[in-house]
Design a protein that fits this description.
A two-stranded antiparallel sheet has the order 1-2. It is mainly α and about 220 residues long. It is about 60% helix and about 5% strand. The protein has twelve helices and two strands; from the N terminus they run αααααααααααββα. The longest helix is centred in the last third of the chain and has 17 residues. Strand 1 and strand 2 form a beta hairpin. The protein is elongated. Helix 5 runs antiparallel to helix 6, helix 6 packs parallel to helix 8 and helix 8 packs parallel to helix 10.
Amino acid sequence: MRSRTALRREIEALLRKGDLEALESLAVRESQVAGVLMQYLYDPHNPLHWRALEGLGRVAHVQPGQVQKIITRLLWLLNEDSGSFGWGAAAALGEIGRHELGVVADIIPMFCGFLEEPFSRVPMLWGIGRLAEVHPGELHEVIPFILPALEDRDPQVRGLGAWALGKLKEPRARESLRKLLEDESPVELYDQGELRRLTVARLAREALDALEGACHSPG
């Protein structure tokens, strides 16, 4: 087994290249990959932060036991006693569930509480949106805690709330989404491998389009 310093160096090189398949292969050989990836979750302004989140999801798929070992640590980072340093912990839970639902299935009810805490609301909305793209049916109990986001004072909360509700195709959000169609406040969203700079209005429109698509789909 290589030193942790050498392992971190290799992981960082893979994140910079965006080579998540090679990261999966490394996780099969090295048991500390998930732990090293956690070190990138603390600063959302670090360009490797988002790729590390995606990496955790990919590692969860090929080595669920390795990621299961860090779930307790992620939850502790979301506890008020942690000092709120784990900005990306909530996002990580959603990304992990997207790729390996069984690792987080039992703690999805805790997402409701994370949505009520100001420091974890934005990353939790992102994590829920990511999870909802693959497993929307697992998040019914969380939806009532997302709906208030559309009226939040923070445009980042409004925008990610709209995005997540669009992924969930939640009809109860329709009227509130329509009220946001002229909200040109800026929002940042990591999606499709890049950090996109959008507006609340655009995300609300995309969410409404998703709702309309759901209404007209067969069945």
